[in-house]
Design brief:
- The chain has two domains: about 240 residues, no CATH class; about 200 residues, Spore Coat Polysaccharide Biosynthesis Protein SpsA, Chain A (Alpha-Beta Complex).
- Helix content is about 50%, strand content about 10%.
- It is built from 14 helices and seven strands.
- It has a seven-stranded mixed sheet, with helices on both faces.
- Strand 1, helix 3 and strand 2 form a beta-alpha-beta unit.
- Helix 7 crosses helix 12, helix 7 crosses helix 13 and helix 10 crosses helix 14.
- It is globular.
């Protein structure tokens, strides 16, 4: 069932080539006459800025309008497919009881709903809590896996797939919170649009905890605005793990979950894409989750996201440039790869080079455009009507702080790129700690 990706050595060589390309691009202004040294940055800024701003400002496509999405009546229950709700839980004693209570409260025909939790080698009290909950909720299915089984979250999900028979699978994290009508609202809409997968907007429940969680709440709104804009423009939509609804047939044709990646969701997004399956994103209803509360936790989380994000490009680039994708999707991928991965590395090298040569950085126009577009996306996302936790209002100081907060990617991406290019890889999936507060 597991999908076999390229090995670590192949990824390391591709990461090294990526790093060399970034170095060459960073030094490009030094190889042309001084009067034209800003020209590469200006050209990239105009091209990428025009496209990304068009994505962010794109109007709602009426075909995907979820503003009036309501639960179907009981009279239509016979048309509903069977659904498996699947959660991989490792050391989740703080949230697992609340999770199970919410899962058991989901409104859906009981003969068409199955709830499965994989206890993935927990060392805390998760096992004991699940055993007690099983007595209270006999329909709850608990699968136990040893901690040494390997494959991270992907391995746990693959372990459960052989025992699931539903036509659709809802993947949740252990800290997920959601409305009881979530399936009755989302599934009919998803089937109507012909999507093979759909990602629910992620909403932060603890945005008032500190400045870091506030920024993450605004960041999730920004990300959803960009994702929906890409959807409306015929571009690429990516899964975000928690709150992803998958068609089982499409998942099987893609080979299940990839156990050779640290981000199962991003990897699966590309395999669905290159296999011709459509992914959608819904603004409402959201899936609610905790944001990390410390800088050290943020650093670990973003390192994993960055590594998984780069891995998928290294693994699937032949398919991404093939005729499997439309020209629109290729341009969309190229634009956001440049902004998300290429720009941080090039800018980092550019700053170091400029410091050593006592020159002003040459790629500042492109960075300025990237952060400006992010600010517009922040504003639009934080002004939209939402269900679930309120998104912090986009007051000027908050917008400024949130834009500054995005600078962490200009350290994370270069660090991860260098590490992937130079060090042997031992696959380690680092989970996010959930407090349940």
């Amino acid at each position: 069932m597991a999908f076999a990706a390229e090995n670590g050595e192949n990824r390391r060589s591709k990461a090294f080539l990526f790093l060399i390309f970034c170095v060459a691009l960073a030094f490009l202004p030094n190889w042309i006459p001084p009067r034209y040294s800003l020209l590469p940055a200006i050209i990239f800024a105009v091209l990428l800025g025009t496209y990304s701003l068009g994505i962010v400002l794109r109007k709602q496509d009426k075909r995907f309008d979820d503003s009036n999405l309501v639960a179907i009546p009981e009279s239509s229950y016979d048309s509903l497919p069977c659904v498996d709700v699947l959660v991989s839980a490792r050391d989740e004693e703080n949230v697992v009881e609340r999770l199970v209570e919410r899962l058991m409260a989901i409104r859906y025909p009981k003969d068409k709903l199955r709830t499965v939790i994989i206890n993935d080698g927990s060392k805390d009290n998760t096992s004991t809590i699940l055993t007690k909950l099983k007595e209270t909720f006999p329909t709850l299915k608990v699968l136990n896996r040893s901690r040494s089984s390997g494959g991270g979250k992907s391995g746990a999900l693959n372990y459960a797939l052989s025992q699931l028979k539903g036509e659709w699978i809802l993947i949740l994290d252990a800290d997920a919170q959601f409305h009881e009508d979530i399936l009755l609202r989302v599934l009919p809409f998803t089937k109507k649009l012909g999507w093979s997968a759909v990602q629910l907007r992620k909403a932060v429940v603890n945005s008032s905890n500190n400045l870091l969680t506030l920024c993450q709440s605004m960041e999730m709104a920004m990300d959803a605005v960009i994702q929906q804009g890409r959807l409306f423009a015929g571009g690429v939509v990516e899964l975000r793990g928690n709150g992803q609804l998958l068609n089982r047939n499409a998942l099987d044709k893609c080979g299940g979950f990839n156990e050779d990646t640290v981000t199962d969701d991003l990897d699966l997004s590309f395999r669905l894409l290159t296999s011709g399956f459509d992914i959608g994103l819904l603004w409402n209803p959201p899936i609610q989750e905790e944001a990390v509360v410390t800088l050290s936790s943020l650093w670990r989380q973003r390192n994993r996201w960055a590594e998984g994000g780069l891995q998928r490009f290294f693994d699937y680039w032949p398919s991404l440039i093939s005729n499997k994708l439309t020209l629109t999707k290729k341009l969309d991928l190229a634009s956001f790869f440049s902004l998300q991965y290429l720009l941080p590395v090039v800018s980092f090298i550019d700053i170091i080079s400029s410091s050593l040569s006592h020159n002003f950085p040459r790629y500042w126009p492109l960075s300025l455009v990237a952060f400006s577009v992010s600010g517009v996306a922040y504003f639009r996302g934080c002004k939209r009507d939402v269900e679930g936790p309120a998104i912090p209002s986009p007051r000027f100081l908050r917008l400024l702080i949130s834009i500054i907060y995005l600078f962490h990617w200009f350290f994370v991406i270069p660090f991860v790129s260098f590490r992937m290019a130079t060090l042997p890889k031992k696959l380690v999936w680092v989970k996010t700690i959930h407090s349940g507060e």
